[in-house]
Design a protein that fits this description.
Elements (H helix, E strand, L loop, with lengths): L2 E7 L7 H7 L5 E6 L10 H9 L5 E4 L9 H13 L3 E4 L6 E3 L4 H30 L12 H12 L4 H8 L3 H13 L1
Parallel strand pairs: 1-2, 1-3, 3-4
Antiparallel strand pairs: 4-5
Helix pairs in contact: 5-6, 6-7
Length: 187
């Protein structure tokens, strides 16, 4: 029986070191992904690779059960698939900590709580952004296109230059140039 690890964080900016510190010493191989846990299995490359790698008798190991998914249905699909293939799940921390060879109320509950936590985080984020907007604050990344760059984009485009050339000259993305042009045509 081989322990195979799965490390997951939701965004590319998040760190995986904490999970690797726990899984690397005990697993023969650790798969990593930086995608939302609410996605379907087919849209999660790390999980898909781990599932393809696992063999009968192996054990998929995660730090917490929500690494399998933060969507109850998708998490249950993963668990059912594993258990049907005689692959156990080892959860190191949280209410579902332990080794599991079949579905149980505690696993189902842990996945349901993970989905609820995700929904709560999303709701709080939305409320916080809405409150900030009411106070006149705008969230998101700072704009890379200032008034000078905007004028250059419009002037060069009016002369017939391609969007790619304009983007390269100004050292901005093609998408940023498109956004300026779309904003201008909407006015």
């Amino acid at each position: 029986m081989a322990l195979v690890g799965l490390v997951r964080v939701s965004t590319k900016g998040q760190e995986t070191a904490r999970q690797h510190d726990v899984l690397d010493p005990i697993c023969v191989k650790v798969f990593e992904e930086k995608v939302s846990g609410k996605l379907a299995v087919k849209d999660r490359p790390g999980l898909t690779a781990a599932l393809d790698y696992l063999r009968d008798g192996d054990m998929l190991t995660v730090q917490e059960v929500d690494r399998l998914g933060r969507n109850l249905l998708e998490g249950l699909i993963v668990l059912n698939d594993l258990f049907e293939r005689s692959i156990a799940v080892k959860v190191l921390d949280g209410i579902a900590a332990g080794e599991h060879t079949e579905r149980s109320l505690i696993l189902d509950l842990a996945l349901a709580l993970a989905e609820d936590r995700r929904r709560d985080i999303s709701r709080k984020t939305k409320n916080g952004l809405e409150a900030a907007r009411k106070r006149g604050k705008v969230g998101g990344r700072p704009r890379v296109i200032d008034d000078d760059k905007r004028a250059i984009i419009l002037a060069r485009r009016a002369k017939g230059e391609s969007i790619r050339v304009i983007a390269r000259v100004l050292d901005v993305s093609v998408g940023s140039v498109h956004a300026v042009l779309a904003e201008e045509s909407a006015d």
